[in-house]
Amino acid sequence: MTATPAPSLDFTAIDVETANSSRASVCAVGMAKVRDGEVIDTASWLVTPPAGHDTFAPRNVAVHGLTSEMVAGEPSWERIFPQIMGFIGEDDLVAHNAPFDRSVVHQACSAYDLDWPEARWVDTLQLARTVLTLGSYSLPFVAKALELEELAHHEAAADALQAARICVALSARTGSGTLADLAMGASPRSSRASAAPRGASHPANRATGDFSGLDATGVLAGEQIVFTGTLQLSMRAEAQALVEHFGGTAQKAVTAKTTILVAGNLDPRTLRPGAKLSSKLEKAMVLAERGQAIEIWTEDDFHQRLDVGRDELEAATRQQRVAVNPSWLPSYVLEQARALDPAAGYTTWLRDALRHPSGRPTADDVCIRCGGAFGIDAYWMFLERHVCSGDCNDALKRTAKAEWKKAGVARPDAPSYAESYGRAVIG
Ligand SMILES: [Zn+2]
């Protein structure tokens, strides 16, 4: 291993923890800022999750150890958001299993109608998969393979710092001078790429956010999955049916073709280098060391992947619908804004300008942007605007702001972090 310096490696690493299965339920955030390949600053907060998303589920408490008592009195995501934006600045973002962290920050922002900037996300988990061959790509295993000092796992500040170090180490190992080089140079591991159809589980697509090739059931496409141990969160037959539904194959026993071994009864915190594992898991580790593309997931990893996969698929489907409807911004968005008093507060003004004139949608109404249906548990603010999702809400705000500006509409000054859209996106 040659430690090449990475003179222009600049980014912010981020890690979030959630209180329950809702990805708006952010309860901790950690960040680490890297300049010229060195960590120069860190920040972390405990967060009171948004109202309606603030129950602490046993499954999540088991992972990170945080409880509602521990976050009582801590600031909300809305309160710390300006500080988070200030810390990130214009940086690209790095996270380990980035689709999860990205989904959490987007959904937490949606809960408060905040605008998350269109930053580039780089996923150290996918990068590690392309550069290393390991039995587990969770932070502790990747850190050990890169000879990094072990840190507490599932603690947001430590995980963000470790993701930053991993990114720097991977860049040194691959000789990448910038984050863009690193992300670009990482091509999918050949065995996995050939097993998976184009699109869904293509690691490069997950890493770059280009989901255009996704099909409806491809989240686990090409994966051959074995369950071992007693599952805590679902029945084994149910879990196997989920695998088939999401395009994978459920196997009875570990073979040379197995790509994922889901271990029930395995505490995410004990899955770390040196842990005593069952013979089946040990065998998988040995297969991985010999070069087989097999990974050990905890049951939690499995469900998280499916949850985030559902999000990615829905976003991809919306994207396809939007492509055929590019001129979707309704005229009332401009008319309403013109009639409003710019002396009103920013939040009130924005709400009044974007509200759909016909009130809450009826059963026949569809999303004004993508034409999609509204879910039964759709967020009240989205319903008020007749948008189906955070994606469509963000697009509505972004496009409306551009149109108001073009038309010279006077409006209240936005908090500086709310105007972060529109900056250049690399790549
Ligand atoms: Zn929509």
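^ zinc ion complex. Residues 325-419 form one domain. The radius of gyration is 22 Å.
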